[in-house]
Amino acid sequence: MKKIEANWSSLKGVKPHEYALRFLFGGLATVAAGLIASKFGPAIGGLFLAFPAIFPAGASLIESHERKRKARIGSDGRNRGRMAASLDAQGASLGCVGLMAFAFVLWSWLNGHHAWLLISMATMIWLVIAYGLWAVGANRLPRFRLTGR
Amino acid sequence: MDTIFIRFLVGGLVVSLFSALGDVLRPKSFAGLFGAAPSIALATIGLTIHQNGSAYAALECRSMMLGAVGFFTYVLLAGWVLRRYRPGALIACLTLLPAWFVVSLGLLLLFARPA
């Protein structure tokens, strides 16, 4: 399985305006979710709790960083950048399954249970499901290659 | 007004935090998980419970499940378009955003029609 690593130096590659844009986008999406819920009710408003707030900015950032990295060694990294963004989308799809479980746990047990405890538990469930699906996918890839030989 | 400001601050912080995690972690397919983190929900659900109670928040969470199915469809579509046609990531992701709304709202109207 691919090893998970944290590359802290990649934070230096993010420009201040990119951080500001994410903050603004996240803040606006959260405010919008609240306003829509108060105007149209919790059923419509709840949809926006699963709004893809980070994804477009994240995918575009990944593409642009990959393109710049390739440009430094003199090659055109556009295609590679777009493939990297599609890999990000693949990962996000697994996160979405975790997000469904997160919402299911809160919907089922929020009434009558300790809210903060349940929110923490639902977050852990999101992480475990998303990681579990990713780990299964990452393990499966080498096995396919072996049977193909 | 105060609530809106608090929502804005908390939402901005939580989304930025998950986004930074996505930047730092490798491989990219793993970091991608954080693109679908429950960031807006974590930022807002506590305030909703405090203001409107648990029953109201639970109803929002039922819709969030459907929104997550819409999100799932949206990222699968975005990934496919990026691999197949190779457009710019931002343009592709923003152009496909209505797909999230159509699937989410369609599911809501089918399975959990709002009163």
Overview of this structure, please?
The complex is a heterodimer of chains A (149) and B (115). Chain A has 5 helices and 1 strand; from the N terminus they run E-H-H-H-H-H. With 149 residues, chain A is mainly alpha-helical. The longest helix of chain A has 34 residues, at 115-148. Chain A is globular. The two termini of chain A are 19 Å apart. Chain B is mainly α. In chain B, 82% of the residues lie in helices and 2% in strands. In chain B, helix 4 (54-84) crosses helix 6. The radius of gyration of chain B is 16 Å and the shape is globular. Strand 1 of chain A pairs antiparallel with strand 1 (25-26) of chain B, so a sheet runs across the interface.
Number of contiguous helices of chain B? 6
Structural class of chain A: mainly alpha
Total count of helical runs of at least 4 residues of chain A: 5
Order of helix and strand elements from N to C terminus of chain B: HEHHHHH
The gyration radius over C-alpha positions of chain A equals 19 Å
Q: Main interface pair?
A: A-B, 90 and 87 residues
Give the rounded overall mean pLDDT of chain B.
Answer: 91
Count of discrete structural domains of chain B: 2
> Largest beta sheet of chain B, briefly?
none
Tell me the Rg of chain B in angstroms. Answer: 16 Å
Shape of chain B: globular
